[in-house]
Structures are given as structure tokens and as C-alpha cells.
């Protein structure tokens, strides 16, 4: 009977998963999670403009908008409802009324197993969570409100508890956090959007429990030894 093979169209490399020597039970889960994280990393700046690929979404994926400050906002569940709610989510923070034209600047991406008070781990989720800090410009010139995201290196000042002010006009940009949780198959199970203020300085005091996304992916490549899985291949080049 032929072994099962997984194909990653990004590099046309085949990887066998059929019980090779030394393979640990969690290896396949790490491979799937690594693949999802790479796809997600590529899509993050445009996540409010275009939908995420369906294959990385769990069928029961849920979206939670500002659960700390706006507990009255409903939680949506399911792939179709998630995609629609995420696309219109800028209305919830009343900063970017031009829906569908919101590009984000990604400030940081961290993988952590540390429990987060503003995003409790959902049933069925693996311990690894991806926490993304991002900002969306409040500029009203150029491509319209939300049409261009303020870069953290473009002369804007960034601090915990404050947004980022655009260079011209002094409009205050919205700075937020995404928290992604994943199921055992590496698919996105839960997506929480929260303000930086409510998230607080969550990275302080957790030390080695927080790892940069690229470092985590590179670590996965090293764990695979001489034959990295397609999810990690090419990251070390």
C-alpha cells in the first residue's frame, strides 16, 4: 500500500508521512501548523482585504471582536460567517469606515504557549498561539481612510497603550492585536481581535515562552533534521 504523501504547492516537494523511524506522534501536527503559519504570515497585511484560504480555516472557526471592552459584540462561528465578519470588522473600532480597503502594517509576530488573559484557550486548541501586533493608519489623504497603513519605522511613535500617529495631519491610527489559536490539524480555530491597551505588555515576564514566528518556523525546520518538511523548506536559505 503506498504511503500517504502531502504536497505543498509552494515548492513542489513531496514528503512521506508513513511511519518513518524516529517519527514522533506530534510531528505531523507541527508540520500542519507550520504550513498554516507560513500561509498566514503571507496574508496578514491583507487579511482585512481578502479572505484567508479556506484550507487553513477549521470548519468551526470563531471570531471574537474586542471581548474585553465590547463583550456585547456577538461571536461568529463557521467559515462563511468568519470571512464576512472579518471583512467588516473595521467598523467595530470606528476608525476605518472604508471597508475592504484596509491594509495593515505588521509590527510583531510571536508564537507563545503562555495563557493570555484576554483570549483564553478554546476547547480543542493546541497550546501554541500566534499573537500579532499591527497598526492601521488613520490618515484621510491618499487612498482614503484606511487605504494605507502607517509603518512603525516611518517616523511614527509607538508605545504600549497608545496608537501610532500618522506623520501628516496627526490622525491617530488604530493599533491592535490578533490572537490566532489552532486545532490539532493545524487549522485556525479561533481569531481574537483586541486593543493593545487591553492586551497590555503581555510579552513581559514570559521569557522563553515567547518566540518570534520566523524563529519558530526555523526551529521546526531544524527539528526535521536533514529532510525538512515542505512547510519549513526554504526558510533557512
SSE topology sketch:
Elements: E1 5-8, E2 13-16, H1 27-43, E3 57-65, E4 76-77, H2 79-88, E5 105-112, E6 129-136, E7 174-182, E8 188-195, H3 196-199, E9 210-212, H4 213-223
Parallel strand pairs: 3-8
Antiparallel strand pairs: 1-2, 3-4, 5-6, 5-9, 6-7, 7-8
Describe the structure.
The chain has 237 residues and is an alpha+beta fold. The protein has a domain of 163 residues: Nuclear Transport Factor 2, Chain: A. Helices cover 18% and strands 23% of the residues. It has 4 helices and 9 strands. The longest helix has 17 residues.
Short synopsis of the structure:
The chain has 237 residues and is α+β, with helices and mostly antiparallel strands. It has helices at residues 27-43, 79-88, 196-199, 213-223, and strands spanning 5-8, 13-16, 57-65, 76-77, 105-112, 129-136, 174-182, 188-195, 210-212.
Amino acid at each position: 500500500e503506498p504511503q500517504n504523501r502531502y504536497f505543498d504547492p509552494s515548492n513542489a516537494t513531496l514528503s512521506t508521512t508513513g511511519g518513518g523511524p524516529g517519527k514522533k506522534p506530534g510531528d505531523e501536527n507541527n508540520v500542519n501548523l507550520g504550513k498554516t503559519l507560513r500561509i498566514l504570515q503571507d496574508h496578514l497585511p491583507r487579511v482585512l482585504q481578502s479572505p484567508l484560504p479556506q484550507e487553513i480555516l477549521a470548519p468551526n472557526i470563531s471570531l471574537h471582536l474586542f471581548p474585553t471592552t465590547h463583550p456585547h459584540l456577538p461571536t461568529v462561528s463557521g467559515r462563511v460567517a468568519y470571512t464576512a465578519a472579518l471583512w467588516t470588522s473595521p467598523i467595530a473600532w470606528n476608525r476605518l469606515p472604508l471597508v475592504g480597503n484596509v491594509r495593515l502594517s505588521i509590527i510583531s509576530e510571536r508564537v507563545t504557549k503562555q495563557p493570555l488573559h484576554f483570549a483564553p484557550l478554546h476547547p480543542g486548541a493546541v497550546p501554541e498561539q500566534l499573537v500579532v501586533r499591527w497598526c492601521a493608519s488613520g490618515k484621510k489623504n491618499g487612498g482614503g481612510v484606511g487605504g494605507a497603513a502607517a509603518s512603525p519605522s516611518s517616523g511614527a511613535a509607538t508605545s504600549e497603550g497608545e496608537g501610532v500617529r500618522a506623520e501628516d495631519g496627526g490622525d491617530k491610527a488604530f493599533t491592535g492585536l490578533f490572537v490566532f489559536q489552532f486545532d490539532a490539524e493545524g487549522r485556525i480555530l479561533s481569531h481574537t481581535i483586541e486593543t493593545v491597551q487591553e492586551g497590555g505588555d503581555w510579552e513581559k515576564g514570559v521569557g522563553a515562552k515567547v518566540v518570534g514566528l520566523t524563529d519558530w518556523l526555523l526551529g521546526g525546520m531544524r527539528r526535521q533534521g536533514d529532510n525538512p518538511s515542505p512547510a519549513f523548506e526554504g526558510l533557512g536559505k
